[in-house]
Amino acid sequence: ARATSQADACINNLRQIETAVQQVAIEKNKHVGDTLNYPDDVTAYIKLNANGEIPPCPAGGTYSLLPVGADPQSVCSLGSTVDPAHILP
Questions:
Q1: What is the spatial distance between Cα 16 and Cα 3, in angstroms, rounded to a whole number?
Q2: pTM of the prediction?
Q3: What letter would DSSP give residue 71?
Q4: Looking at residue 61, what is its pLDDT?
Q5: Which residue from 1, 44, 61, 79 puts its CA 20 to 30 A from 8's CA?
Q6: How far is CA 72 from CA 19, 52, 69, 87, in A?
Q7: Could you tell me the mean pLDDT of each successive run of 10 residues in the chain, 89 residues long?
């Protein structure tokens, strides 16, 4: 149950990051293949936690961004190495 809860929270974080990436790409006129810096470029577009940070993966994974236009554009380092996977559906 704990692993499922952690995966669900991580995937929700990835969805927020994904939305932020799309907003940044539009506002900064980024093109497919361009890169963004995590967390600097997306922080202003995400609801931050009480510490003023992007919520971390509850299972200890780290988030990173793939180039604009990739599917998905945000990933967790745990990915499919855990069950359930920390991957956007």
A1: 20
A2: 0.94
A3: S
A4: 98
A5: 44
A6: 11, 25, 8, 9
A7: 96 97 96 96 95 96 96 96 96
The three-state secondary structure class of 56 is coil
CA gap 85, 6 in Å, rounded: 10
Quick one: 58 exposed, middle or buried, by C-beta within 10 A (0-12, 13-18, 19+)? middle
What are the respective helix, strand and coil percentages of the chain, to the nearest 5? 35, 5, 60
- Across-strand partners of 63? 76
Residue 53: enclosing H or E segment and its boundaries?
none
- Exposure string of 26-52, with b = 16+ CB inside 10 Å and e = fewer, is eeeebeeeeebebbebbeebbeeeeee
Chain Cα centroid distance, residue 12: 8
At 62, list the tokens: 């780290």
